[in-house]
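Hi both,

Apologies for the delay on this - the queue was longer than expected. I finally got the 2-acetamido-2-deoxy-beta-D-glucopyranose-bound model through. Below you'll find the protein sequence and the ligand SMILES exactly as submitted, and right after that the structure tokens for the full complex including the ligand.
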Amino acid sequence: MALSLTRWLLAATAVLPQVSGSILSPTPPMGFNNWSAFMCGLNESIFIETAHSMVDNGLLAAGYNRINLDDCWSTMERATNGSMVVDTEKFPRGLPWLTKYLKSLGFIPGIYTDAGLKSCGGYPGAYGYEEIDARDFASWGFDFLKLDGCNMPTGTQAEYKQVYGKWHKILSSLPKPMAFSESAPAYFAEAANLTDWYAVMEWVPEYGQLARHSRDTLVFNSTLYWPDITGWDSILFNYGQEIRLARFQKPGYYNDPDFLIVDHFDLTMDEKRSHFAIWSALSAPLIISAWIPGFSKADFEYLTNKDIIAVNQDKLVFQSTVVSQDENWDVLTKSLSNGDRLLTIINKGKSTASYSVSFERIGLTTDQHVRVKDLWSGKSNVAKNRVTATSIPSHGTAILRLSAVHKSLGRVIPTGKVFNTFSLTTLTASSAGLTWGSSTGVDAQVWQALDDTTIRPLADSRQCLTESGRGKVELTHCNKKLGGQQWDYLYSGNLRSLSSKNCLTESKDHGVVMEKCLYLDNNQVFALPSGVEVVKD
Ligand SMILES: *[C@@H]1O[C@H](CO)[C@@H](O)[C@H](O)[C@H]1NC(C)=O
Ligand SMILES: *[C@@H]1O[C@H](CO)[C@@H](O)[C@H](O)[C@H]1NC(C)=O
Ligand SMILES: *[C@@H]1O[C@H](CO)[C@@H](O)[C@H](O)[C@H]1NC(C)=O
Ligand SMILES: *[C@@H]1O[C@H](CO)[C@@H](O)[C@H](O)[C@H]1NC(C)=O
Ligand SMILES: CC(=O)N[C@H]1CO[C@H](CO)[C@@H](O)[C@@H]1O
């Protein structure tokens, strides 16, 4: 994706979703796109060599079955009949030949265009040519379209919605519907006012199968786009955007934190493996953008880890949500379709260390032994009350699958951070009362969201988050008879009191207060642990 060419300076969940056979992409897409490694240097031989390498080294068999072209595949002008024209220096045998060849190997080919007047790289945009381009892409044999959003005529949120909506209509009415990757949200990310970003996030799941919510992961040569950051910084940055948006993901729609840039020149092996493990825990698309024929045996090995891919492709496709964060550690969890629980621990620190998490924090209520499988080593052991991952290397990620030794894991309570997805402050229960604070990973920042729609701090689960009138919120003893202790988590990200219909709000001085619900306001949009029912209204 060529977003960064023009934009780099910018400074759920629900009850078990229905998995229907008619969903275009019931699990996250996996495959290859040449952008991060090749940018505009793409050509036929790169795709052919890549495809063969993916077959020979087991990537296709592991599920990486898409090969997508990015920007710069065409000439600079359209033909007189309005069609895009392939650059025959880059693709001497043309695109229908290429798609046929890729399909003969077992791949699904994808193509790129831009919703605006010009692509991010300056090639013809599709604005006003939507029907012609969709027809051509389909007739050339493509089954997947990535639609960037550079150079829109006016750039308003409403305009993006209208144009992406138009594409949705066209693509879904083709004889063979095309998977639709939408870059629209990325153009509204990182703003001082996130209302438009949130608004776009609300409609992209209705129109397509995946959406790029924020900036590009670093291209191979990062110095061109985002000086002075490392590949690891870029991975954590996009992860940091993704975790704000878990409520939108569902079977058939995936939040896309962008490509796996696994051959970025400064990544260590531990960082590459983390990149893959984190994207898998998020059930994010796994689209490798790297020079695959140049991979080492070890690269192919970790990228084809069956247990981790199974987590990525789990049919619930929950995005793991954050249990806790501190300076050195991020802990994530989610449920898997067979009732197992996934625990992911990221070591952001500078040294190898062990980390231990209580069952409670993972949402488990069982007092029994639980089987813990380390998905990197494939080894299992049993644990009771807490899980400890030992020797996690600096910038490494432990990814553990918890399952019942006997019947089932028992009741699982959605548990984790409640945070403002604009300011990133975390709901904190201190002795002085409630505040929005920075993350330190303490129990006072880990919350349980119960079926009765109460919200309780892990530090003392007899206490409930309570709206106590006059705009105040406090922790008071849980009591079903009291009003003000029940909350709806809305699709908008609002936490709305059932009794007053007002919304939880972060005030200017980080106070936890109640105010009238506003439209996708910076101070009222929150992320909650996965498993909490999301109410659309
Ligand atoms: C495609 O690009 C690669 C890398 O830049 C180059 O080695 C190769 O010769 C090119 N192939 C064609 C057909 O231009
Ligand atoms: C449009 O023109 C191009 C270039 O002359 C040609 O290859 C293509 O087949 C034409 N498309 C249609 C639908 O006629
Ligand atoms: C944020 O943007 C929205 C949509 O453009 C606008 O309605 C709202 O007033 C803005 N909020 C602030 C605080 O500027
Ligand atoms: C990236 O590109 C710039 C400009 O072409 C060049 O000076 C620099 O050495 C390149 N860096 C890497 C890591 O390839
Ligand atoms: C990693 C890699 O092979 N990068 C290539 C990306 O594409 C450019 C342009 O063709 C090449 O110069 C790089 O070598």
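Main takeaway for now: The pocket of 2-acetamido-2-deoxy-beta-D-glucopyranose (ligand 2) is lined by residues 79, 81, 83 (CB under 6 Å).

I'll put the files on the shared drive as well.

H.
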